[in-house]
C-alpha cells in the first residue's frame, strides 16, 4: 500500500451524540484509521466492532447508529452525494450497512463532519439539527406520527431550512418494525436490515443537516476538471446506450427470460404475465424522472400508482412487491411501493415477508385471508405491519425468519432469507454463483455485495460450481461490497455504463493526495470482510458453514420448476459445499468460513484475530 | 412457413427495444441459421456488450438454431 499523509477528502472530525444524556461533542477523526478503512461501511464496521461488545442488542443503548460519509462525498465525483448508515441491525442481529443516494452525504461534510455517531436512547422523541456545525437536539412531539415525506417537508418548512437534507423514519421506524428504513432527500432510502427500527429505538425521529463549509481536496483544480469531464462523459454514455430509458427495471424482462425472477415467494422463476410490469411498461407509464445531485444518469422513473400518487420504482421494488406476490398490475405494484416509502419500510424485506405469509397460508402452516395476487389485502397488511397492528401486524413486522420460527411447520425452509435478511429480487434455485453471493454476504442476503448472474450465464455453464464462480463472487464483493461502500459513491456509472474503475483510484488520489492503486482498495475490502466475519464469530462462537447457506428450499427437488428453461433443476448441496470450499480457500478462510490467523495477519488484523481467539480458536 | 425456413422469436430487452423499434418479433430465417447470423441480420451495434440466451440458456454465437427457438438479447445488466 502506498503510504503518505492524507491531504483532503476528510473534514477531520466526527459528531458524537449521546441521546441518553443529551450531550453532543466533536471528536477528531483518526486519520490512521481512515487509511485503514477509508469511510462508509468499512469505517463504520470498525467503529461498531470497537464500541458495541458482543451481546449488545440492536435496540440497546450501547448500540451505535452511524451516518457516515466518505472521501468523495460532496466532491465532483459523479454520484457522490451518497452516505452510509452502519449499525447493529435487528434482522440479522449483526452489522448492518445501507447506502443511500441524494444530498445527505454531501451535507454531512458541508456541515463540517465526516460522520455522525448516535448512541443512547432519548427519554422522549427528538430530532437532531446540525446546521453548519451548530448542533441541537429538539423535541419531536410535533413531528411524531408523520410519514416520511411529510416529516421532511414539515421540518424544512418549520425550521426555515429549504436547502437542508432530512433523514427520517416513518410509522414503521417509530414502531420498530424490523425492516424499517431511513428516508432522506424524499426519494432516497437507506434500507437494509431495520436500520430505521434502530433509529426508532433511540427515539430519534429525524436528522436535519445543512452546511456551507468547503470540502478540502488535495488537488482542487484536477478534481474540478476531472469531475466536469466525467459528468459529461457519463451523460454521453448513458444517452448513447439508452440505459436510463428503463433504468434498473430493464433487468426484469431478462430475469423472466432466464428463469431468475422471484415469483410466488420464489417458488417459480418466470411468469407469462411478467411483461405487464416490466421496464417497457414502466417507461411508457412514466410521468416524471428524478436524478441525484452531480449525476447525469437520471435513473428515478416515476409513475402514477393505482390511487393516482407519484411512486418511483426500480427493479427490486417491482420484483419483490410485484412478481414475487403474483401481482402483475403495475399501478398496484406502484401503490405498494408508495406505501412502503410512506411508512418507511424496506421494499425488499416487505415484499419477501408478504410472499412468505401468503406461502405459509397456502402450505397450511398458518390460517389467514391473504392470497398471492391480492393487491388490496397486501396494502392493508403493509399498514398493519407498519403500525404493528394486532397479532398479524406484529407477526409481519418481525421479518420472515422470526415469522417462520413462530409459525413452525418447517416453514423456515421457504422463508427466503440468509442470516435473517430477506433475499433481494433474484431467484437462485438454479444459479449457484449468485446463491453463493447471497450466502456469503456478510450483511445477510443482498445483491449489493455481489451480482454474478450475468457472468454465470454468459461466461460459464449455469450448472458449474467451479472455482471461477467463487473467484468472481470475491472479485465483485471487493468492488461492490467493498470499494463503493467505503468510498461512499454510487456504483451505477461503473456497473451499468461500464465506467472504468481506474477512475475511482484517480479520484481518490486527487482527493486525498495519496497514491493508491486498485490493489490497495482490494486489501481494504478484504480487511472489512474478514472483520465482519470476526464480528459474527464473536457473537456466535460455534460458527459453521451452514450459516453461509442459502434457503434450503433451493436444494429441494420438489421445488424444481416443472417447465421452462430450468425445469427439474435445483441447487445441489454437496456441490454447493464444494463451491463454498473454493470460496473459503480463495479468501484464506478455514472450512468453517472463518479467516485464518495467517490471513488476518496479512490484512493487518493481528490484534483483532487475538481478540476473536477469546471466542473461538483460529486455524 | 416455408419448408426451407425456420421461425425464430427474437425478444429484445431494455434499451434495445427503443433502438430497434420492437420488443418481440417472430421472424423466418434459413434452416441453417445460427445465433450469429440471426443477430447480424438485426441493426444491433456489434461493439455493444450484450448477453444472448436461447430458450433461457446461454448460447454460443455459432450454435445452430431450431425452429421455434426464442432468442433473448439483453445489454449486460449488473443488478443495480
What does it look like?
The complex is a heterodimer of chains A (619) and B (80). Among the domains of chain A are: 198 residues, Aldehyde Ferredoxin Oxidoreductase,  A, domain 1 (4-Layer Sandwich); 185 residues, Orthogonal Bundle (Aldehyde Ferredoxin Oxidoreductase Protein, subunit A, domain 2), CATH 1.10.569. Chain A has 25 helices and 17 strands. In chain A, strand 16 and strand 17 form a beta hairpin. Chain A is globular, with a radius of gyration of 23 Å. Chain A starts with 12 loop residues before the first strand and ends in a 7-residue tail after the last helix. Chain B has a 5-stranded mixed β-sheet with strand order 2-1-5-3-4. The longest helix of chain B is centred in the middle third of the chain and has 6 residues. Chain B is mostly beta strands and 80 residues long. Chain B has a single domain, classed as Beta-grasp domain (Ubiquitin-like (UB roll)), CATH 3.10.20. At the A-B interface, helix 8, helix 9, helix 18 and helix 20 of A face helix 1, strand 4 and strand 5 of B.
Descriptive keywords:
heterodimer; A: 619 residues; alpha+beta; Aldehyde Ferredoxin Oxidoreductase,  A, domain 1; Aldehyde Ferredoxin Oxidoreductase Protein, subunit A, domain 2; 6-stranded mixed sheet; 17 strands; 42% helix; globular; B: 80 residues; mainly beta; Ubiquitin-like (UB roll); 5-stranded mixed sheet
Amino acid at each position: 500500500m502506498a503510504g503518505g499523509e492524507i491531504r483532503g477528502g476528510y473534514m477531520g472530525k466526527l459528531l458524537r451524540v449521546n441521546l441518553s444524556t443529551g450531550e453532543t461533542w466533536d471528536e477528531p477523526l483518526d486519520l490512521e484509521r481512515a487509511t485503514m478503512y477509508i469511510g462508509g461501511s468499512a469505517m463504520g464496521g470498525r467503529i461498531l466492532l470497537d464500541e458495541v461488545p458482543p451481546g449488545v442488542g440492536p435496540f440497546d443503548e450501547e448500540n451505535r447508529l452511524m451516518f457516515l460519509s466518505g472521501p468523495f462525498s460532496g466532491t465532483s465525483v459523479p454520484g457522490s452525494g451518497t452516505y452510509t448508515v452502519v449499525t447493529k441491525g435487528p434482522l440479522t442481529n449483526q452489522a448492518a450497512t445501507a447506502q443511500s443516494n441524494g444530498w445527505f452525504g454531501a451535507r454531512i461534510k458541508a456541515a463540517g463532519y465526516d460522520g455522525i455517531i448516535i448512541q443512547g436512547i432519548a427519554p422522549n422523541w427528538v430530532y437532531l439539527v446540525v446546521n453548519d456545525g451548530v448542533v441541537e437536539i429538539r423535541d419531536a412531539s410535533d413531528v411524531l406520527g408523520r410519514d416520511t415525506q411529510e416529516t421532511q417537508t414539515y421540518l424544512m418548512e418549520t425550521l426555515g431550512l429549504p436547502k437542508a437534507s432530512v433523514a427520517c423514519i416513518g410509522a414503521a421506524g417509530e414502531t420498530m418494525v424490523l425492516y424499517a428504513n431511513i428516508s432522506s432527500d424524499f426519494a432516497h432510502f437507506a434500507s437494509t436490515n431495520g436500520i430505521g427500527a434502530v433509529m426508532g429505538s433511540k427515539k430519534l425521529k429525524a436528522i436535519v443537516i445543512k452546511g456551507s463549509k468547503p470540502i478540502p481536496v488535495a488537488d482542487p483544480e484536477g478534481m474540478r476538471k476531472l469531475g466536469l469531464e466525467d459528468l459529461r462523459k457519463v451523460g454521453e454514455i448513458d444517452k448513447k446506450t439508452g440505459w436510463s430509458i428503463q433504468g434498473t427495471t430493464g433487468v426484469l424482462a431478462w430475469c423472466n427470460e432466464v428463469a431468475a425472477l422471484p415469483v410466488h415467494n420464489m417458488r417459480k422463476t418466470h411468469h407469462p404475465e411478467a411483461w405487464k410490469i416490466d421496464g417497457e411498461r414502466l417507461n411508457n407509464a412514466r410521468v416524471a424522472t428524478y436524478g441525484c445531485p452531480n449525476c447525469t444518469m437520471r435513473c428515478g422513473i416515476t409513475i402514477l400508482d393505482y390511487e393516482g400518487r407519484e411512486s418511483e420504482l426500480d427493479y427490486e421494488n417491482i420484483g419483490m412487491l410485484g412478481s414475487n406476490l403474483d401481482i402483475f398490475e403495475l399501478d398496484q405494484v406502484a401503490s405498494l411501493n408508495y406505501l412502503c416509502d410512506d411508512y418507511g419500510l424496506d421494499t425488499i424485506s416487505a415484499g419477501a415477508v408478504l410472499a412468505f405469509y401468503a406461502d405459509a397460508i397456502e402450505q397450511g402452516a398458518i390460517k389467514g385471508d391473504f392470497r398471492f395476487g391480492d393487491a388490496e389485502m397486501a396494502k392493508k397488511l403493509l399498514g398493519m405491519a407498519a403500525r404493528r397492528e394486532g397479532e398479524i401486524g406484529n407477526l409481519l413486522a418481525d421479518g420472515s425468519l422470526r415469522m417462520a420460527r413462530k409459525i413452525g411447520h418447517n416453514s423456515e425452509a421457504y422463508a427466503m432469507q440468509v442470516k435473517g435478511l430477506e433475499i433481494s429480487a433474484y431467484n437462485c434455485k438454479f444459479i449457484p454463483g449468485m446463491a453463493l453471493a447471497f450466502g456469503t454476504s456478510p450483511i445477510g442476503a443482498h445483491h449489493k455485495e455481489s451480482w454474478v448472474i450475468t457472468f454465470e450465464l454468459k461466461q460459464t455453464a449455469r450448472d458449474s460450481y467451479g472455482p471461477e464462480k467463487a473467484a468472481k463472487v470475491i472479485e465483485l464483493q471487493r468492488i461492490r461490497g467493498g470499494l463503493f461502500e467505503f468510498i461512499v459513491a454510487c456504483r451505477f456509472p461503473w456497473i451499468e455504463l461500464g465506467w472504468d474503475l481506474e477512475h475511482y483510484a484517480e479520484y481518490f488520489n486527487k482527493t486525498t493526495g495519496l497514491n493508491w492503486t486498485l490493489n490497495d482498495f482490494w486489501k481494504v475490502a478484504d480487511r472489512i470482510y474478514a472483520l465482519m466475519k470476526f464480528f459474527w464469530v464473536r457473537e456466535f462462537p460455534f460458527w459453521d458453514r451452514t450459516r453461509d447457506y442459502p434457503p434450503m428450499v433451493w436444494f429441494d427437488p420438489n421445488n424444481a420448476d416443472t417447465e421452462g428453461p430450468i425445469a427439474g433443476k435445483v441447487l445441489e448441496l454437496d456441490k454447493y459445499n464444494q463451491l463454498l470450499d473454493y470460496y473459503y480457500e480463495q479468501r484464506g478462510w478455514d472450512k468453517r468460513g472463518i479467516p485464518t490467523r495467517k490471513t488476518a495477519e496479512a490484512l493487518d488484523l493481528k490484534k483483532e484475530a487475538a481478540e476473536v481467539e477469546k471466542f473461538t480458536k483460529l486455524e | 412457413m416455408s419448408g426451407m425456413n425456420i421461425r425464430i422469436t427474437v425478444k429484445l430487452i431494455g434499451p434495445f427495444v427503443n433502438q430497434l423499434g420492437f420488443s418481440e418479433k417472430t421472424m423466418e430465417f434459413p434452416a441453417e441459421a445460427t445465433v450469429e447470423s440471426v443477430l447480424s441480420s438485426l441493426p444491433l451495434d456489434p461493439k455493444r456488450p450484450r448477453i444472448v440466451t436461447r430458450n433461457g440458456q446461454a448460447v454460443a454465437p455459432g450454435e445452430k438454431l431450431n425452429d421455434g427457438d426464442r432468442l433473448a438479447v439483453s445489454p449486460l445488466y449488473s443488478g443495480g
